[in-house]
Specification:
three-stranded antiparallel β-sheet; globular; Beta-lactamase
C-alpha cells in the first residue's frame, strides 16, 4: 500500500508570454539556483492586486496557453495482464545500463510493481512539483495572490534555452499564476527560478515534509541530508544501490547543493494528488489542472492509446530522464513513477520510459526498442500508431516514403539513427535544480 510508504489566469495586457520553440538545456543543478537566490538586486518586484490579500476560493480559469480541444474517447488497450508486469519490465530492462527507479500503483494505493523505490535519484525538473505546491500554499494562506505581478528578470535565463518566455519579455511583469503554469506545463526554468525568489529553501523543505516526502531534498548539500547515503530496500540490487549513490555524489562535488528524491516519494506525491489530499483539495486541484496540460509528451503519454488522459511532470539533466504522474484508465487510474540516471543515452532511456508506461497499464503488446525512427526525428514519434506494428515491428525495405526502410538508410539499431540531442519536434523540458 502506498500508505505504508508515507504517510491561469493572466491579467489582460498587450504583451503576453508565448511558448517558445523548445531547445536543449544542458546540465545545470542547484549550484545555479543558490547564487540566484542570494544575488543582490535581482529580487523581483511583486505588485499585489486587489484580490491578492484574500485566499483564492476557486480554481483559475483559462490558462495562458490555449487549452487543447477535448480528446476523443480513449482507445481500449487490447489485452491487459497486470500479473505479467514484473516479467515484462525485467525483459525490457535486461542488459540496460544505468539505474531505473519505478513505482506502479493503483489509485487505492496497492503497489503493482516497484524497483529501487528507496534509492536516491536526481530530481531534474521534478523539483518543480514541490515548488508549485509551496507557492500555492502561500497563495492559499494569503501571503501571495495568483494575480500578483512579478517582473521577469534577465537573471533567470540561461544561455542554453528557455521553453516559455523570451528575452524580449524581460522587464515585463507577469502574474504568479502564469509562472506556475509555465513551470508545470512547459517546465520553464525561467518561471521556476522566478518562483524560487518568492520562497526559501527552508520553506520548500517544510512543504516536502508536510506532503509526506521523507527522502526529497530541494537545494541541499549531501552533508545536510540525514542518513546519507540512503539504503535500498528489498526491491533494490546492491549494484543499483552503489551506482545510484555514486552518481548522485558525482553531482555534489565539493558538497555542492543538489536536489534529490526517490521513486517512493514521487509515488506519494501523485497519490496525494489523485486523492485530492496534497496539502489541501484546492492546491491539489490547481496542480492537477496545470499538469493535465503538460506539453512535454514524449514519455508516459507517448505509447498510450489515443485519448488516454495523463497528468505528469517530466525532468531532464545529462544522463537523467524522468517522468512521473497518473494514467487515467477506466475505473483503474495508475500512479506511474519512472526515473533513470547514470544512463549512456537519453534517447534510449526515453524509449524505455515510453514502454514502461505502456507496461504499467497492463498492456501485453509492447513495441520493441529497435523500432526505426521516422526521418527528421531524434526520438521516435510513438504518438503515431503507424510508427510501429506489433505484428511486424521491423519495416521491410520500401516502407519508407523515399523507398527505403524509413530510417533514412540506417539499419535498425544503428547509433547513427539515434542521436541523443532532442530536436524541436521532441522538445526537451529543461533542466532542474
Amino acid at each position: 500500500m502506498l500508505s505504508t510508504f508515507a504517510g491561469h489566469v493572466s491579467r489582460p495586457r498587450e504583451t503576453k508570454a508565448q511558448p517558445m520553440l523548445a531547445t536543449r538545456i544542458t546540465a545545470r543543478t542547484a549550484r545555479i539556483v543558490l547564487p540566484l537566490l542570494g544575488l543582490p538586486g535581482i529580487l523581483p518586484r511583486v505588485t499585489a492586486t486587489p484580490e491578492a490579500t484574500s485566499s483564492p476560493i476557486a480554481s483559475p480559469g483559462a490558462s495562458p496557453a490555449a487549452t487543447p480541444a477535448a480528446s476523443p474517447a480513449a482507445s481500449p488497450i487490447v489485452a491487459t495482464d497486470d500479473a505479467g508486469i514484473p516479467q515484462r519490465i525485467s525483459a525490457l530492462l535486461k542488459g540496460e545500463d544505468g539505474v531505473y527507479g519505478i513505482v506502479i500503483a493503483r489509485a487505492d494505493g496497492k503497489v503493482l510493481y516497484s524497483r529501487n523505490s528507496a534509492l536516491p535519484f536526481m530530481t531534474a525538473s521534478l523539483y518543480k512539483l514541490i515548488l508549485m505546491a509551496d507557492i500555492y500554499r502561500k497563495i492559499e494562506r494569503g501571503f501571495l495572490g495568483q494575480q500578483d505581478l512579478v517582473e521577469l528578470d534577465w537573471s533567470v535565463f540561461s544561455d542554453d534555452g528557455e521553453t516559455y518566455f523570451g528575452w524580449d519579455q524581460v522587464g515585463i511583469a507577469f502574474p504568479i499564476q502564469e509562472y506556475l503554469f509555465a513551470a508545470g506545463a512547459y517546465s520553464s526554468n525561467a518561471a521556476a527560478w522566478t518562483l524560487f525568489t518568492l520562497t526559501s529553501v527552508d520553506d520548500l523543505a517544510q512543504t516536502a515534509a508536510d506532503i509526506g516526502l521523507t527522502r526529497t531534498y530541494i537545494v541541499a548539500s549531501l552533508s545536510s541530508i540525514p542518513a546519507w547515503p540512503f539504503q535500498g530496500g528489498a526491491d533494490s540490487a546492491p549494484a543499483d544501490d552503489a551506482l545510484a549513490t555514486a552518481f548522485v555524489e558525482s553531482w555534489a562535488v565539493g558538497d555542492d547543493a543538489i536536489s534529490i528524491t526517490t521513486p517512493r516519494d514521487m509515488a506519494i506525491y501523485f497519490h496525494a494528488l489523485l486523492t485530492n489530499t496534497l496539502l489541501s483539495p484546492w492546491i491539489s486541484g490547481q496542480i492537477i489542472d496545470i499538469l493535465s496540460q503538460q506539453q512535454v509528451r514524449d514519455r508516459i503519454p507517448a505509447l498510450l492509446p489515443a485519448g488516454t488522459k495523463t497528468i505528469n511532470k517530466t525532468g531532464n539533466l545529462d544522463s537523467i530522464v524522468n517522468d512521473a504522474g497518473i494514467i487515467e484508465l477506466p475505473g483503474d487510474d495508475r500512479i506511474v513513477v519512472l526515473l533513470s540516471e547514470a544512463i549512456s543515452s537519453d534517447t534510449r532511456a526515453t524509449l524505455i520510459l515510453q514502454r514502461l508506461a505502456l507496461i504499467a497499464t497492463g498492456a501485453t503488446a509492447i513495441p520493441p526498442l529497435d523500432v526505426p525512427q521516422p526521418k527528421g526525428l531524434e526520438v521516435i514519434d510513438t504518438t503515431d500508431p503507424s510508427t510501429w506494428d506489433p505484428g511486424n515491428p521491423t519495416p521491410e525495405a520500401g516502407d519508407g516514403p523515399d523507398g527505403t526502410d524509413g530510417t533514412g538508410g540506417a539499419p535498425p539499431g544503428d547509433p547513427s539513427a539515434s542521436p541523443d540531442e532532442p530536436t524541436p519536434e521532441q522538445p526537451d523540458d529543461g533542466d532542474g535544480a
